[in-house]
Amino acid sequence: MEASLQQFCDKWQLDVDAQNFLRSLEPAALEVVIADFAPHEGTQDVAGKLYSFAKGISRQPRQEGVEAFIQKWKLDLSTAKWVRELPQEVKDALVRDFEPKEDTQNITGKLKGFARSILSRHQHHQHAASHVPNAHGDQRLQEFVTRWGVEESLGFLQGLPALVQAKVIEQFDPKGDTMNINGRLCSFARSVAERMNLPTNAAAVQQQPLGMMQPQMQTQMQPMMQPMMQPMMQPMMQPMMQPMTMDPLNAFFMTQMPQAQVPMAMACGGCGMAPMAPMQGAFQPAADPISSFRSRWALTDQSRQFLMQLPQDVQNIVLAEFSPAAGTANLDGKLQTFARSVLERFQDAHPQQGHPVVHSSNPQVAEFARRWSLDEEAVTFLETLPEQTRHTVLAEFQPRLGTRNMTGKLKAFASTVMGAQGYQNSRPPDGAGAAGGSGGSLDLGELAFLQKWGIENNLMVKETLCTLTPDQRLRVLRDFEPATDTMDVAAKLCSFAKSVARGKGSGKGPGGMPVFKRPAEGDLGPDPLRPRLA
To answer: 202, 201, 221: which is closest to 211 by C-alpha?
Structure first.
């Protein structure tokens, strides 16, 4: 082979560099080059033509791998063309590393997002190859920065406590379609610092005034903060330079933002600071954070209303961390799913204070009440619903986030369900209940209770309940337990209601805890006790 190579070099009068290039080729590729290279007569740059020809030969096996990749994932013509036009280094990494989950629905979107992340890191690597400092001799840190293309975050990484930095370098592994690698790195480092619960001398995670942080951190932060202190931004940024409680991780996050986003972040408190009031002469953002977020992701107005109903803490998390995969088709649905998961985590971590714990003998009702933070009235209402209605309500009740009157919302939903199931939503006659108590008509829960016992058409029962206060009605619905051999449930209920109104009544019939039975459907007819109750 060496003799053939030397003869080939002499034939085309190749210099030493070209000869060394040929020797660096794979033997199979070199053999093809020697056999097939035949430039046109009059070619001025033979060496350049040779380089191009040899590289094409070397790429052929790799191109075959790309075509097999296209066939494997059944890419359409447009996507296949897009893949073929990627830089060779990106195609190599794509073919080698692209392994989406089995249940991935949008392969094209996932693939393009993954390829863009590779391209971004590749470009960062090329741009910063001559700019990455020695990182104080820490070879691992330098390799980490180069690998992920996070040169912008180098100062941030150097400022981390040694244990946090080591853990970040070891464990940081973002998804292939992550678009904002630097932002993801900051978020990950913060979570690592919180999990490690470092001692108070760990300056990088300790809450302390920005103007009083350690000299090393101040030295690193000042150059990054300087470009932000432009004349237009200075009135708004100036308060940040005064002593205030702001941890360095958040301070660094501020420095990573485009200048146009800084006012929005300061206004919504997204970096952990309290929202700042607008100042005279200060630059004002063109839109509120939610509107900007909506425009960024091309969301519908329904999603904007949805975001406005979220608790402020949950809203801040959603605005800061929502990062759907490239190619996501239904961004509005993805947003709502993400926000609900954030809300559930937030509620688990911050249970409501001062809300009474409501118990129920029905495990499904108890879990439902815990999930939606229901009060005793709502739980009693659920327990009095017909079984079919209750089952549907427990399965399908999905109020909007931020609903304030959960009990009212629950009753309205149950009313709709009962109507669809054929239950009558009757009302007592006008003037019922005028004798005292809360007066007016019965609510849905009370009507459902009467329907349960087959006495929904008994006017005497309705009038009796309407004379009670809301608390007394609640006790009647909760404690009424007639004996199994009760013949006249309506009369028994009226008697029990009167005892509750007098402050008596245990709700237990003879024999302690009876077994419930559902009375026959239909009107029980005139009640013989009505004259005595009039």
So the answer is: 221
Q: Tokens 């992920």 map to which residue? A: 148
Residue pLDDT, tens place only, 436-486: 444 457 777 787 788 878 888 787 888 888 888 888 888 888 888 888 778
Measured CA angle at 506 (ends 493, 434), to 5 deg: 45
Residues with Cβ < 8 Å from 106, sequence gap 6 or more?
A: 325, 327, 328, 329
Residue 18 pLDDT > 70: yes
Residue 38 tokens, joined: 């035949």
Q: For residues 120 and 180, is the Cβ–Cβ distance under 8 A? A: no
Cβ burial of 132 (10 Å; 0-12, 13-18, 19+) is middle
What is the DSSP secondary structure assignment for residue 210, as one 8-state letter? G
> For 62-88, what is each residue's pLDDT tens digit?
566 788 888 888 888 888 888 888 887
Tokens of 307: 């975001």
Angle (nearest 5°) at CA 284 between 282 and 289:
140
CA distance 31 to 13: 18
What is the per-residue burial (b if ≥16 Cβ within 10 Å, else e) of 203-242? bbbbebebeebeeebeebbeebbeebeeeebeebbeebee
Do residues 240 and 254 touch, judged by C-beta distance below 8 A? yes
Give DSSP secondary structure letters for 94-149: HHHH----TT-S-HHHHHHHHHHHHHHHHHHHHHHTTT---GGG-HHHHHHHHHHT
Tokens (6 digits) for 444: 């849905």
Q: How far apart are alpha carbons 456 and 150 in whole angstroms?
A: 71
* Contacts made by residues 62-68, CB under 8 angstroms, sequence distance 24+: 62/88, 62/91, 62/92, 65/95, 66/91, 66/95
Question: What DSSP designation does 209 have?
Answer: B
Residue 509: the pLDDT is 39
Structure tokens at 76: 């359409």
Q: Are 252 and 221 in contact (CB under 8 A)?
A: yes
Q: Is the pLDDT of residue 265 over 60?
A: no
What would the pLDDT profile of 266-288 be if each residue is shown by its tens digit?
Answer: 544 444 444 444 444 444 444 57
- Please tell me the distance from the alpha carbon of residue 252 to that of residue 154, in angstroms, as a whole number: 11
3-state secondary structure of 512: strand
- Strand, coil or helix: what is 366? helix
Residue among 252, 239, 71, 237 at smallest CA distance from 160: 252
Cβ neighbours for 415, distance < 8 A, ≥ 6 positions apart = 425, 444
Q: Which two tokens stand for residue 502?
A: 């007098």
d(C-alpha 338, C-alpha 323), whole Å: 9
CA–CA separation, 423 vs 406, rounded Å? Answer: 23
Residue owning tokens 């007098």: 502
